[in-house]
Amino acid sequence: MKMGVNWLTALMHVSFCLPTECYLFHKTAETPPQKETIKHSVWRCSICTYDNDETMSSCDICGVLHGPLLNNSIYDKKRTANIFDLKSSRVSSTVVGRDEAVKVSSMRSDSSNQSTEKGKHNRLDEINILKNIEVGPPAGSRTSDNCSASVQEGWLGHVDESSVAVNLRSSGKSSLSLMPKERNVMVDDSSSSRNGGEANSLTSNLENISFAAKSGHSNDANPGRAISRAQYKPEKWMLPEKAEQSLTQLNLAIVGHVDSGKSTLSGRLLHLLGRISQKEMHKYEKEAKLQGKGSFAYAWALDESAEERERGITMTVAVAYFDSKRYHVVVLDSPGHKDFVPNMITGATQADASILVIDASIGSFEAGMDGTKGQTREHAQLIRSFGVDQLIVAVNKMDAVDYSKERFDLIISQLGAFLRSCGFKDSSVSWIPLSAVENQNLVSAPSDFRLFWYLGPNLLDAIDSFQPPTREFSKPLIMPICDVIKSPSQGQVSACGKLEAGAVRSGSKVLVMPSATIATVRSLERDSEACPIGRAGDNIAVSLNGIDGNHVMAGGVLCHPDFPIAFAKHLELKVLVLDGATPILIGSQLEFHIHHAKEAARVARISLLLDSKTGKVVKKAPRCILAKQSAVVEVILQEAVCVEEFSKCKVLGRVFLRTLGRTVAVGIVTRIVEEQQ
Ligand code: GTP
Ligand code: MG
């Protein structure tokens, strides 16, 4: 977003209501017991278990459709799935008219207005799964694509991704780290045992698992895919010219345990960097004080809804922007509360890098690390499984522990070992002690003498030390849709999301999946402003012509007409069951998450149990997968999703499985067993 535009107008909020999160929670509130009996003339939602009246064609709580293929007419505005909760001001400029813009999902404000009582259903937002639009054979031929990832890649694709040395902790500003480097530089950090962590960490070892562990079926599920993505020749306009290259966009997810100070840190940074004016800050301070929540003044810049402010927690992902020396940073301030992990995930799927915020206070760091209740571990595991390998650990609230070096070192030693076990390399993790409230070590060197022992960079410098993300400019278009905005009076529809590959401009023809409909790009918007071209890495809103709005849905994908994305419900996955998670059995019912889609899934088969260190097959057809074990499984989804094998397209091939509000496994799609035609 450019200077002069009120940054708040660019705040977007990502909301994604998981089944188990379809209730409103207080910080300490537990999920209300779910009804055990199915009422007469109701149908029970397979996702959130809500008993719907039989007249409802989709779940009243989570929006999941009831029954097979339904007419498009069922897609009333309320039910159209999307997860980005864009402020109407954001939709106002070019994509759709200011007053006409309709947020298709229920709004943040809906959630605040509708229910605040414990146990009452909370329509925070509606699930971003729309299925059942008539899916004809996709236009264009299918590809047997083999472009983006090699089958030699390690567990969840960790191996091929950037791992450049950015160890900033004790060495001061690393001149190296400020230089752009080639990605894929492998750093041997096997000797790096600063924290004496787990020598043979589970996930690092899993990097050795090769796709040889596939079940051996030939991949002939996509016979029509004739054109390889590798053969694609990009047009000249798709590639950025050197001269036009301004700051590289860096999508930065701010994650961490509830109350660790993510929003306060984000708000403070934005204020220090001039994105929040003194006047606005004054307003937040005054309002926060009036409500007896003075300490949340900076957080209020991000936590906009009445409910978030009242409860003092972030519920949806807030998006804001600032420029550093090297990057146009898109801040994705995530919720830390366990009930909103799915929302956090929606932001994390778009992240190039992440800041994991830790509350250094006594007891709080420990609470975040708690295996069952703490979100520090789950967030770290999730962002890593989404391919984020560059991490800043912002050890916040150092003021609360007297800026103690001992406390900082203890956090490094305990959390460092865990991060290693998630697959983060020591060399790609920076540790920054700071205090958001006291403005210590954010954009300048600490002024508090108690931090004299710290010689490393401040937070902003550490952000600038991230390696630039790799962008697939010259690949065919892929944009997973995370939100849909409709302007019924003008008959316009816009798909929002991050361009993962390729580029679009006005007049481009795009294939909208899963409806397999061709549309023409009418205009583009980036950071609330019109832009002529959107390229890989950009978060954009694409206004489409020539398509019925009901054929554009969150969880879908915009792609190149000649390179359609697969649409399937029977998949083979390679999964790793997380530490402490409940075992996965044949027949287990789980929530299946993939990019911006979610589906109910059943484990149909556990084909192979793999040695987590070597990737070798340990057992064929085991009956269950225990925590820390990895396996090849087949899942059958209730409805098909847009998907690709991980070896062909990482972003559409990463999955995770959840149940009862916890993530139980992360994984990748190794094979599309049967594609929907
Ligand atoms: P969720 O989004 O709900 O997970 O919370 P959060 O991580 O965004 O935390 P938030 O910014 O809302 O801050 C929570 C509380 O921590 C507020 O009372 C802040 O004032 C306080 N806080 C944040 N940063 C600091 C800090 O550096 N020092 C101290 N002492 N308190 C802080
Ligand atoms: Mg917050």
Automatic annotation (TrEMBL):
CDD domains: EF1_alpha, HBS1_C_III. Residues 247-477 form the Tr-type G domain. InterPro entries: EFTu-like_2, GTP-eEF1A_C, P-loop_NTPase, T_Tr_GTP-bd_dom, TRAFAC_GTPase_members, Transl_B-barrel_sf, Transl_elong_EF1A/Init_IF2_C, Znf_RanBP2. Keywords: Cytoplasm, GTP-binding, Metal-binding, Methylation, Nucleotide-binding, Signal, Zinc, Zinc-finger. GO terms for molecular function: GTP binding; GTPase activity; zinc ion binding. It is found in: Cytoplasm. GO terms for cellular component: cytoplasm. Residues 106-116 have a biased composition (Polar residues). This protein promotes the GTP-dependent binding of aminoacyl-tRNA to the A-site of ribosomes during protein biosynthesis. This is Tr-type G domain-containing protein. It comes from Gossypium raimondii.
